[in-house]
Amino acid sequence: MACNIDHSIEDVMNKLESQKNFLPEGIFKEL
């Protein structure tokens, strides 16, 4: 279970990292 959770978090972080190029920085400051 823990392995899958860690992988999911890593996957989400990777998606956020790639989306950061398209979204305004203001959105990330609010998050």
TrEMBL record:
Query: Could you tell me what this protein is called?
Result: Group-specific protein
Lineage runs: Bacteria, Bacillati, Bacillota, Bacilli, Bacillales
